């Protein structure tokens, strides 16, 4: 497992999933209501992006040029330490706004953790189960792209993947797609207008069981719980990258 690739996953997939959390979770919505603040993460030798909280929404934009609070990290490993709780960052910009970072942002990440690493009993609540699975779905889509673009083995599979859109989603509920262009993968949190191949889960429970490793993907395809089609060579390479995602997110 590569620390640099993990840093890209932690920024764009894990922290990036705050976009979906603030859309789906009522407490997260309340925490950012009325806020106009941005947090930039600058990782030496790694990713750089800014989380923007404005107009009751959260979005992620490239770079840190216009952030209110800037958190620099000397290496991908140190940034990964922020995510696993072993590193406490010191802002290089925005000390007057550090209250948001220490209180509301910390609370947001705690809520996010509760959905990404849920207690078994919590999943018995249907609403919690739905939000948790949706957030996890978008984390996986984002992580898949970061592995394909940065991980050595992932890049090999991406290098063998033809250009075009790959549609992924849960039937009649929520979708995303990945654009493959010149062997670079770009995620999109919406249903594509057109696509070359697809991977569709029959229902949200099937998706969750696959995410949690409770059922086998090949068997699920054979039984019709997961439908794949289109350019199968493209789907096959995407699945190879997906296997690497499990290593990084475990």
Characterise the protein shown here.
The protein is of the alpha+beta class and 250 residues long. Helices cover 48% and strands 22% of the residues. The protein is built from 10 helices and 9 strands. The strands form 2 sheets. The protein has a 5-stranded mixed sheet with strand order 7-6-5-8-9. It has a 4-stranded mixed sheet with strand order 3-2-1-4. It is globular.
Question: How do the strands of the widest beta sheet line up side by side?
Answer: 7-6-5-8-9
The helix/strand order is HHHEEEEHHHHEEEEHHEH
- The CATH homologous superfamily of the largest domain is termed SCP2 sterol-binding domain
CATH architecture of the largest domain: 2-Layer Sandwich
Give a brief rundown of this model.
With 250 residues, the protein is of the alpha+beta class.
How do the strands and helices of this protein lay out in sequence?
Elements: H1 3-14, H2 18-24, H3 26-32, E1 36-43, E2 48-54, E3 57-62, E4 69-73, H4 76-84, H5 98-116, H6 126-150, H7 152-159, E5 164-170, E6 174-181, E7 184-188, E8 197-201, H8 204-211, H9 217-222, E9 226-230, H10 232-249
Parallel strand pairs: 1-4, 5-8
Antiparallel strand pairs: 1-2, 2-3, 5-6, 6-7, 8-9
Helix pairs in contact: 1-4, 1-6, 2-3, 3-5, 6-7, 6-8, 6-10, 7-10
